[in-house]
Amino acid sequence: MSKAFSIFGSSSRPQLGPFEQKLLQEIWSLGSATVRELVADGKIHQAYTTVLTTVHRLYKKGLLDRAAEGRAFRYTPRHTAEELQRVTALESIRQLLGSGDASAMPLSYLVEALSAHDAQLLDELQRLVERKRRELRDQEKTREQH
Amino acid sequence: MFALRGIAVSLTCFVLLYCLLSALVAIVWRPLRFLHVAQQSVADLLFELRILPLLASVIITFALVVPSFRLLEPRSHREGMGAMPLALGVCALLLIACGCCRVIAAQTRSTRMVKRWLEGARALKTNAGAAIIFQSQGEAPPLTLVGVRKPRVLVSESTVALLSNQELQIALKHELQHMKSRDNLKKLIFRFCPFPGMARLESAWLQAAELAADDAAVSNLCDAVDLAAALVKLSRLVPVEVAPVCAAGFVAGSLSKRVAQLLAWDEASKERRVRVRTWFVVPLVVATSLLTTIAYGPVLAVTHEVTEWFVR
Predict the structure, then answer these.
(1) Which residues of B touch A (CB under 8 A)?
(2) For the whole model, what pTM was predicted?
(3) Where are the domains positioned within chain B?
(4) Residue A2: predicted pLDDT
(5) Which of A79, B17, B51, B248 could form an S-S bond across to B145 if both were Cys, CB 3.0 to 4.6 Å?
């Protein structure tokens, strides 16, 4: 996990392309696989060499572990899907906070988003209070009429 | 050496009792939140439970540990002192020093902030009270009760402008209820007895204290709606700085819960709610004191046996 953090922590964080994501999903579903097994599975419609290169790239990015199996390698995911999601989310927030000339600006966006949520709650409570007030006024009017 | 040993043993007993009782309280307080009694009683019970470890350990130390050591410990100069009572004695002193520092820091910060908030403030004439309510200028919080010895209610200019007269009166009544309950003093007492895991109990007490002040301030449904409206309006004002410990802000606790309770206000249900009176504890205290007085000798002997174990 530490390696994944160090990858995501660097400023030049490698992004996962669509094919890399697809391969990773496939290896997660299989548990572990060799390149030949991935191609033979039938869900990946790419040449053997393309799959080999992409899997090797995932290994280099620290997302896969590998163990020699005959003349090939067996690849296993280093993290679960949930772990990767968590790290990606953390990295997104870190990037957001670290971006821009004014470092406080992204934080102000977060505060704004939270304030918007609070404002919604306050609007809802305000509506409830107003409704109760109207009910009270109506009751008083009815009482006066009687 | 005898006196030093006595102090070390007493402090050891104090710190052990305090930690044991605090840990127990931190575990067992939760069911109290669901009691179907008046909110003031819930707040009182939570407060009493929070200070029980400190109170009980002080009473037991002074009523049993110190006399048992003085009366039953032989005044021998040869008997040494173990490492455990020494270490625990130091822990107790650190705990007391930490509590004192927290109280002094909180009080100093509060005094400094209140002094600043009161600059240029003028006394506000209201129906709720006189000479204790001030309209402040500048960066003061919207509406808050500040101070322990000489509590005052501070109202900001924006609050006066934002609230209708009825809303302001009922909001002030809420703050005056905090003053009546001495909630700022209670907060300061919490600072004196720190223990990990007590934050949730303190937060539950704060919530109960807010609901209790709401409950006490309101006497009919119109008041309840006015208080709810004031609460929602003042929640939109963002405080400029964090309020000090010795302050009871109007906007505190769970806003949704408070508004829900106010809008569902019902005179009949308020009257039906049971108040747990403190005098229920009096017979229990009298019985315990009586039993201790009758069996004081044997109790002291047992206490001495236990303290001897620490010294060894």
Answers:
(1) 221-222, 225, 228-229, 232, 235-236, 255-256, 259, 263
(2) 0.69
(3) 2-311
(4) 39
(5) B248
